[in-house]
Queue: 2 jobs
Job 1
Amino acid sequence: MNKKGLLFVISGPAGTGKGTVVKHLLETGEFFFSVSATTRAPRDGEVHAINYYFITKEEFEKRIAAGEMLEYAQYVGNYYGTPKSAVEEALDAGKNVILEIETQGALQIRKIMPEAILILILAPDIETLEARLVGRGTESADIVAKRMAEARREVTLIDKYDYVVINEDGKSEEAAKDILGIAKAEKMRASRNTELKEKFI
Ligand code: 5GP
């Protein structure tokens, strides 16, 4: 039987650059990325079923009612959620899975899958965060303000996470390396390797 994969939950307020960090992690080929569903409109260049499953509010609510979401949350006026079956299949196949989700969803995962590894990515400080968010230019001033308010709230949840990784300006590859280090250590955690006992008896 395959050993189950590890579930990495990566959160970070808007503007931390977590998308770039996750991109580096996926380039290693060591992780399965869970594509979320959302009711928000696609940004320029975003592709259905690659970046998100872009669905309507009605469809999203139907999927919640059908129990198809592993977790979901409302964030700045839209639904975001993790389709359950893809994640379960990947974990059962022994793949290490990344969920890139906000904090409410991460805390739901903590409850239902306590073995998940929760990582919070932060910018070095709030000014850098805001500069990145404004500089991205993908959102209106109103949405930027709402995302900044969310960012402040999300940072207060730091102690609910297992690890914090700071994404310094221009150093997203180093942040990704930090996460690879976490993944390596987590694989070696004694409690995840108890089957080794049998080899020595
Ligand atoms: P964005 O609109 O910038 O793509 O994402 C907004 C926030 O929603 C980010 O913090 C992102 O991590 C989070 N998010 C993306 N997918 C999911 C999901 O499936 N569940 C939850 N709870 N949050 C998600």
Job 2
Amino acid sequence: MKIVDAQVIVTSPSRNFVTLKVVTEDGIYGLGDATLNGREQAVVAFLREHCVPALIGMDARNIEDIWHYFYRGVYWRRGAVGMAALSAIDVALWDIKGKALNTPVYNLLGGKSRSSVAVYGHASGRDLPHALDRVAEYLDMGYRYIRVQAAVPGVKDSYGVQKGSGSYEPAKKGLAPVETWDSSRYLRFAPQLFEAVRAKFGFDVHLLHDVHHRCTPIEAARLAKSLEPYQLFWMEDPCPGELQEALRLIRQHSTTPIAIGEVFNTVYDYTTLITEQLIDFVRLPPAHGGGITHAMKTAALAGVYQVRTGFHGATDFSPVGMAASLHVDLTINNFGLQEYMGHDPLVSEVFRAPYHYEHGALHLSDAPGLGVELDEVAAAKFPYDPACLPVARLEDGTLWNW
Ligand code: EZ4
Ligand code: CO
């Protein structure tokens, strides 16, 4: 089943998405998500210039070998751009295999371990009372897992708080906007926020919180400890994860479960974290972590150490990337939870997603392959629209982690 063509499609229905379409000699095609928020064109160039020429002529059936060709065979391995490109190639090949065998991808990964995929939504408040209103809205919509964020009093820009109306999207047009941050105010406010949420809604709902890399390890340990009474389902990205040993400090001080790795690229970013059981959830999804092939391996290593998955599911991923996550989520035993933000309605003019939200979960269709359809005519109506994620600075100007 020779690959005869591969196209990189960039479209921006409300935000940018990069999609790889791989076409085989018998007319079957597969889709892969190559979106990397704010760095889209780097992945486009890498795919077009360096991957597509090598991909053409390969046998689409040999996913494992093609994966290794573009990983082991590439001297300059890993990195966000390279792994986003490899993820797209891999996911497109799984889509092709499913369509060729007339079965959904989850059947090829071991079949269903559950009937639907539990998701969490984002309750983000302009202030504490607004966050409580947002939690109530998510409960009304049937969510049983809710991430809670709110603007920190005295801090100009807190992570995860939407400005104005419309859907939350941190990337902005032009160069990176500069946001201001203050960890000490945040560390005082976060326990007050969760105290108020538990006082109002009790303990039946699962609560999550994203620290978004803002703390030092010892600050994160203090935060994890101070949030213990509120029994979070997870505390996410407590500190930057590139120093895996830093997570030992947090573990030493607290039993608050930790989720990490939405900015990781491969299982190698997780080896200390998983094998020393320093975390509870891996965030790296198929669309950024080497596709379905590598996500299954990362999940398998995690499973051995009783670590579960909690894949990143921001609007950064197109319905193609979301579908790839859902096929893995449905299959693996150590699934934990899936993030789900929901796209702007414009996105459905370009992508037809195979999943829908109901009763706190995403339900995936049994269409062959991934199940996603892309309308290329509609895609062409939404040209690339450059946007960039912010940078964070402390009040004195020191550059910080965004
Ligand atoms: O800020 O994906 O848990 N979710 C997140 C996201 C990230 C965006 C960056 O593009 O942290 O909202
Ligand atoms: Co996050």
